[in-house]
Amino acid sequence: MKKKFIIAVAVSVLFIIGIGVAFAIRSHGHRAEQMIVDGTIECDEINVSSKVPGRILDLFVDEGMTVTPGELLVTLESKEIDAKVEQTAAAYQSSLSRVSQAGTALKFQELSFSDQLAGAQAQYDARKEEIRQAEENLNQAKANYKTQTATYNRFHGLYADGVVPKQTEDDYEYKYLAAKAMLGAAESKVEEARHGLKAAAAALQQARDSSLQVDLRQQEHSAVIQQAAATKGQMNEALALQGETKILSPVSGYVSEKISNVGEMVAPGFPMLTIVRANDFKAKVYVDESKFGYLQIGDRIKVIVPALGNQGVWGRLMRVSQAADFATKRATNEQGTFDVRGLQLVIHLDDDRRFRNGMTARVVLDVREK
User: Fold this and answer.
1) 161: helix, strand or coil
2) Are 161 and 95 in contact (CB under 8 A)?
3) Is the pLDDT of residue 166 over 50?
4) In this structure, how many other beta carbons lie within 10 angstroms of the beta carbon of residue 292?
5) pTM score over 0.90
6) Domains along the sequence of the chain with CATH
């Protein structure tokens, strides 16, 4: 019994030792611990500049002040641009007056042409009607003259034969002479009406030709409208340049640096302020791929910020890339070794208005090294 007990104890001890050795081997092959890697907090910086030259008249912000999109930051003074605005505005107003005058002249010409054409057409139609009536009267006068001539000749013969008295022959002669006079008058009236129609036709053609004046007025009106559009474009361009003298904040953030001061002349593109974009802070660190190659995009990572009293904040891994300026550890001739490269981790931090560009960021990472 004693011997069996000793054997059982020995087996138990060996089993416990085996478990311990296996755990030690496993722990040695895959150690798990935390490491703090120092990096920096960074954010995109935007240089605020002007499209036009000018002198800084007002500067409404200072370093450290927060700004919002569209907030007025700087006002520039540019007398040249102001003069250009006044000049082009005056030219535009003058062109509008010319447009109004040309429009009035065109309207007057159209009305005049319409009245002239209507009057000439009415006169021509009246002359045509006059000719019709004159020719109708002429035909009647011819018929009457023919009848009176025949009657007079018959009674004149009877009078010569002594059949009718002189008084009767005189009556028919009078009627004949009257018919002859009426025929002459009717012929004159027709001739006069024909001359009148010819004159009315000429007047009508002249009225129709005056439509060319309307066309010329229309062309003049179109030309001054185009000129007005051109001067308006010049005025809008000058106003746009004048608008560029008011510098607005393009983003939300805070002023990290004031480069220029009130009274200074600035050239186009010269930065006057630097703004750090808000809500876009990132922690950047460089790490060893052999220890942190397991990290995946989107992983939640804790970052300690010493400037905030070692307060821990959280962020999410947004980029993992090979660090070009990180040293590469070359492998030796030992079997199973490999070159170890550096990685750059970029962690997008949760929003915190206390962050500032360049703060130290201590990134807490789990080490998984084989």
Assistant:
1) coil
2) no
3) yes
4) 21
5) no
6) 31-75+257-369 (2.40.30.170), 82-239 (1.10.287.620)
